[in-house]
Amino acid sequence: MNCELLDLRAFLAVLDLRSFVKSAQLLNLSQPALSRRIQALEAAFGAPLLERTTRSVTPTALGRELEPTIRRLLGEFEASILSINTLGARQRGQVAIACIPTAAFYFLPRVIRTFRERYPLVRFRILDLSANEGLESVARGEAEFGINFMGASSDELVFTPLLEDPFVLACRRDDPLAASDRLTWRDLEGRPLIGVSRASGNRLLLDAALARTAVRLDWLYEVHHLTTSLGLVEAGLAASVLPRLATPAEAHPIIVTRPIGDPEVTRTIGIVERRAGRLSPAARQFRDLLLAEH
Question: How far is 96 from 134, CA to CA, in rounded Å?
Fold first, then answer.
């Protein structure tokens, strides 16, 4: 195949930015030069990789199929170059992570801030996806690794635990349940509750744990996003059961959280990687920092 690295970078830039104008600016190319790069790549593959209209740019079926392979090829090339160069504050690169939204919002920014103090030139590409989508993204090679709670779903993936994230009750400060320092699941029987969708990984985990008890909960409201449940709690509609990572800080003026025991139900947050994959130097260092801080 007769194509250049810049052709591949041009293709990924257009996919990420969905714009020839912005991609040309990012790569310091003129728009005609960028178009020639894409045309050369399409000629090499013998088929269109992008569908262009006056308003949008989207990948063709072949473009979608090739995207993870091209990202992996460029990542491995970048890893080889970086392994030769001096590491440290001058290190460049990109870390692509598939992360469940609660981890992306609540603890990932703190670790990224620490990492960027050491390596300010490293870029991040964060794919905030559901648990299932995140695992698939890692398996396809779209992300170098993921932060998830479902663990490895196939022999191709390996799961390394980071922390335990127990399910808790989030309620208003004026709720009678807020007066207890610790609750049991039986304390919640007969109470209207807010839960996540039955199709979500969080709900499947919770239902499986409670199926071994005689407790029956009244899920009056079901939501897709955990943050939505907090809005309903603030409005006084019901209390919510959700992972501790998804709850607001202790200083929240309206909402408090209370641990739930008997039994304690928890999810394990961890790093998901391809068993046969090789992380770039930047991704490996960020992974090591995640492990060190948790």
Answer: 12
Residues 6+ apart with CB under 8 A from 260: 166, 167, 168, 169, 182, 183, 184, 185, 188, 241
Domain for residue 250, yes or no? Answer: yes
- pLDDT for residue 201 is more than 50: yes
Report yes or no: 41 and 14 within 8 Å, Cβ to Cβ: no
Total tally of structural domains belonging to the chain:
2
Domain span including residue 174: 165-266
Q: What would the mean pLDDT of 37-52 be, rounded to a whole number?
A: 89
Please state the rounded mean pLDDT for residues 144-169. 85
Neighbours of 115 (CB within 10 A): 20
Tell me the two tokens of residue 274.
Answer: 């391809």
What's the average model confidence in pLDDT over 258-270?
A: 92
Residue type (1 letter), 182: R
Among 66, 87, 108, which residue terminates a domain?
66
Strands of 173-199, DSSP E: 183-184, 192-196
CB contact set of 243 (below 8 Å; sequence gap of 6+): 102, 165, 166, 167, 168, 202, 226, 267
- Grouping H, G, I as helix, E, B as strand and the rest as coil, residue 26 is helix
- Amino acid (one-letter) located at 47: A
